[in-house]
Design a protein that fits this description.
The chain has helices spanning 6-18, 58-70, 90-99, 116-124, 136-141, 151-171, 189-202, 237-240, 272-276, 279-289, 297-301, 329-341, and strands at 28-31, 75-77, 104-109, 129-133, 177-184, 208-213, 230-232, 241-244, 249-251, 265-266, 306-308. It is of the alpha/beta class. The structure holds iron/sulfur cluster (SF4).
Length: 342
């Protein structure tokens, strides 16, 4: 299969947000290197996960990348429910993916395990985007670890990590982008702007800043109040991406953190292509497009791709767009809504 350039991949990604185009392999995979975490934050679904924690074997990872590189896979995020820097081979995984043509390699992290050696290796090996969750609840959670930090110590630590990342990317002439994200209960426009300003000043070397809302992370809790105010639209995840957990189980997204609602298979017994083109995946897509998204338990409770019936606006903080901060989710969501009426 002809490989896409980075520009072609980004263009195609956006097309998939506007239109549910049938493909025989996802453009993006969330590949979870581990479901374990070094912290236990009070709000996190780590508290409700029923799985015994595991590391993805390196051989499983390389098998996924081998299949992906032959089938047009462009992007991976090496994280879903856990802290990926607990995986002893994270740098090797990045190198393997980059050497096999993956254009966009991302990792989300709390950054607390990043030391000089790891920073140097992951930047040298081709990491494209590091997403740092800068949340003071992480400082609070360190109180139960061997290295407790005050809020100030935590902030200084993350500032040092960002500075070291910046030095490493200059040393290796790397295109690494650093994103700082913080979750806030107050999701008013004023507070979002204030938090962005604060983080730009705290982390001047970072490239992107994002403020996320805090939702309940329990799988049986609606992520928004008054869901009957909204119409539910097809979720673009179903045409763009899959989530592969460390144990090999595959689902649509990390909202299914126990993998019991939208489970699609396991990469230890099926190929990614078989799962992507399976009857179960087709059924998800058909029912999302047919106005029956609510028949899937977690999709019925999820805030993504909803439109307010009265205002025709997406709910505040609706996720699904991460890179194009200039484009409002509402525009895209309305387009998806139009598609469904065809
Ligand atoms: S739970 Fe939300 S993000 Fe996941 S597939 Fe359903 S609608 Fe999409």
């Amino acid at each position: 299969m002809k490989k896409r350039t980075y520009q072609e991949y980004r263009k195609f990604w956006k097309e998939l947000e506007r239109e549910p185009i049938k493909t025989d392999f996802p453009v993006h995979l969330d590949i979870e290197l581990t479901d374990a975490c070094n912290l236990k934050c009070s709000f996190c679904f780590q508290n409700f996960m029923e799985y015994k924690r595991s590391l993805m074997p390196y051989e499983t990872f390389t098998k996924i990348i081998d299949e992906g590189s032959q089938n047009g896979l462009c992007a991976i995020k090496l994280q879903s429910r856990g802290e990926s820097f607990l995986h002893p081979k994270i740098a090797e995984c990045i190198k393997y993916a980059k050497d096999n043509g993956i254009l966009d390699i991302q990792v989300t992290t709390n950054a607390l395990l990043l030391n000089d050696e790891k920073i140097d290796l992951v930047v040298k090996n081709g990491l494209d985007v590091l997403i740092i969750s800068y949340d003071l609840v992480h400082a609070e959670a360190t109180q139960k670890t061997p290295k407790p930090m005050t809020n100030e110590e935590f902030t200084v630590f993350i500032q040092e990590v960002v500075t070291k990342l910046d030095k490493a990317r200059k040393k290796y002439n790397s295109n690494l982008k650093i994103r700082i994200q913080e979750a806030q209960e107050d999701y008013s426009a004023e507070n979002i702007a204030a938090v962005e300003r604060k983080n730009k000043s705290l982390f001047p070397e970072a490239d992107y800043f994002l403020v996320n809302p805090i939702y309940s992370s329990h799988e049986d809790a609606p992520h928004l109040a008054n869901l009957d105010q909204y119409t539910f639209h097809p979720c673009s995840y179903l045409w763009q991406r899959l989530t592969l957990y460390a144990c090999g189980s595959v689902t649509t997204c990390s909202r299914d953190y126990n993998c019991k609602f939208n489970r699609l298979g396991n990469v230890n017994s099926s190929t990614v292509k078989e799962i992507w083109t399976s009857p179960a995946m087709k059924d998800l897509r058909d029912r999302h497009l047919g106005g029956k998204r609510e028949e899937f338990h977690i999709c019925a409770l999820c805030e993504n791709y909803l439109i307010n019936k009265e205002t025709n606006e997406a709910p505040v903080g609706c996720t699904g767009i991460v890179y194009d901060l200039k484009e409002t989710p509402t525009k895209k969501l309305v387009k998806l809504g139009k598609y469904r009426k065809k």
